[in-house]
Amino acid sequence: MTIDLSRYLTDSGPKYLAIARALSEAIRQGELPPSTRLPTHRELAEAMGISVQTVSRAYAQAEKMGLVQARTGSGTWVNALDDSRDSAYLRKPEPRHEDALIDLSIAHPVCPPGHHLRFRETLAQLAEQASPDIITANRPIAGLPHHRERASQWLTQRLGVPGEPDERILCNGAAHGLLLAVATIVQHGDLVLTEALTDHGLIALSRTLGFQLRGVAIDEQGVLPEALDMACRRFKPRAVCLTPTQLNPTGATMPQERRDAVAEVLERHAVWLIEDDVLALLEPPGLTPLTARVPHLGFHVTSLTKATMPGLRAGYLSVPRGQLHHTLPRMRATTWMATPLIFEIADAWLADGTVDEMAAEQRHLLAERQRLASRLLSGHERTARATGMHVWLGLPTAWRTEELQQQAEQEGVAITTAVPFMVEQTAAPRRVRVSVGAEPDIERFEEGLQRLVNLLGEAPPPMMQFVY
After folding, report:
1. pLDDT tens across 4-54, in order?
2. Which residues of 256-277 are buried (b: 16+ CB within 10 A; e: fewer)?
3. Adjacent-strand bridge partners of 197
4. Beta-carbon neighbour count of residue 155 at 10 Å?
5. What does the alpha-carbon distance between residue 196 and residue 218 come to, in Å, rounded to a whole number?
6. How does strand 239-242 pair with strand 314-318?
């Protein structure tokens, strides 16, 4: 027999996936009823002017989607929509050969070629000018003095973080700074409060260090002050760990009024604050950190990673006065000292304004992608910061988050569900996180978004509607 799939074909994605989707739609529309025998691989290849191998892959994909069944010696047949055979094979990802996955899953700054050029130029300058200390230094656990002094000045002037150079610790990225801050004040078994959805690094840290982590209700501006107050009264936490700027994964950012209210709660309960401010540079200047409101209670963590390049693991931990001697032993135990060469690069870029230039450029690049995402996803519920790294995307009723993630991967696109960011075992939000910076090529980013939009406009493949 012959079939005409042309009306259901789209131009996005690999050809075999487009054919499998077209088969799915033809079956859903009733054009290919159950028990219909499909053309042989060669017949369909000749009819469509494509290779037999492409048809074979399309049929194999359709079988994994539960649409058809290959019967030895009899051909390929359309399944009934309620066919519920074993799902292990169906859930196995299809090996990809054409292209690597389009990455919309990882938190990553946009890295244009100019970034690499700046890096190489700086390395060339350091080869001529760098002090031997950056290789021979061994004892300054908190960092070389000139690095700490420059960083302290910049942290105060650009981010509004209180403190003096002797209250700054140079660490290997914000994740390391977060570990040091937590380890300084939190013991095994202690309870720490954080947002109900929070960065997965903190969740992993709680499991590693053995402290309890409890989530507090959030809205589009971050943690709710009244919910935080109630949780502090009820649980008497050892510390509160918050991300007031571009909370991962929702992008929630506290305005100044919310920060004032949250700081008042922390002050009233005299509870330690650990502020993860790693995305501060992705917002224009003006937002002052929570730590500035409660400097005697606040540990502030940030880094240059998200605003410059991921490999520049230059992190900065600011500690309350009187706490440095508690933090430094943890520094020695975890890394001895942060890598001086990395901070020599960071120091040079702080001195000549490169960091602020790259941060401004990053905001521009992210804003461009957010505008593109807003246009393509205009028919869907979503929240995002104008210069944010992510889109927090709501799903149509027909889709479950894990189904969309699985099918998106089959379409060659990687996205992230809410599950890795959930502090407690509650119902997951029907949203996925779409990251906008990982693909350096904006056209490839647009292609990934378009494939996702196409998926959202379709019904899930029949077999995915079963509970496995």
Report:
1. 888 888 776 678 888 988 888 888 778 888 888 899 998 898 888 898 888
2. eebbebbbebbeebebbbbbbb
3. 422
4. 24
5. 7
6. unpaired
